Amino acid sequence: MAINFGKAEFVRSAGTQAQFLWDGLPQFAFAGRSNVGKSSVINRLLGRKNLAYVGASPGKTTQVNYFLVDRKAYLVDLPGYGYAKVSKAEKERWGKLMESYFQEAQITAGVLIVDIRHKPTADDLTMHQWFRETGCPEIVVANKLDKLKKSQVEPALTLIRETLELGGSDTLIPFSAEKGAGKEELLNRLNASL
Fold first, then answer.
1. pLDDT digit string (tens) for 17-54?
2. CA distance 26 to 29
3. β-sheet with 27-32: strand ranges across
């Protein structure tokens, strides 16, 4: 049952646990730091310019956003984390929302988006742990590949592998939302997780 990611529509935003969607369709959960380019990765994957909101300032995704893909699965855009310019109360609300999503979720695959130029943060490690605890397959996407010279790519990927303690069977995809590198591999991995 290959999914056509080119057919996607926004369904709803969930700001509370009661608004989460559990209708039995597979869910691909996308998570990442506020300024990692998560919306850009999603838009590249879906072949759309602005289906997922790309903010001029980080931290715009404050709810759990559901996109129905090919009427067969949901791409779930989780709130970005780790951005300093939001209130403590807002950070706590996001934390609770995320925790309840992970406790209830039947996630088919988790996509953790990190910045290939930097060592994964403590927040990235927490999210990585949450995906591991659900038992779903996790795909780590190292975005912003276009910002590195070729000679910098392998050392950057090694640092990510070591920091997240990825094993040989774990998936790490170098990706460029800007140029489209890694898109086909990510689509294949998502389809393979079904």
1. 899 998 999 999 999 998 899 989 999 999 987 777 64
2. 10
3. 8-14, 64-69, 73-77, 27-32, 109-115, 138-143, 171-174
* pTM (predicted TM-score): 0.92
- Tell me which residue has tokens 């056509």: 4
Quote the tokens at residue 56: 């001029």
Q: How far is CA 24 from CA 35, 105, 106, 139, 151, in A?
A: 31, 11, 8, 21, 44
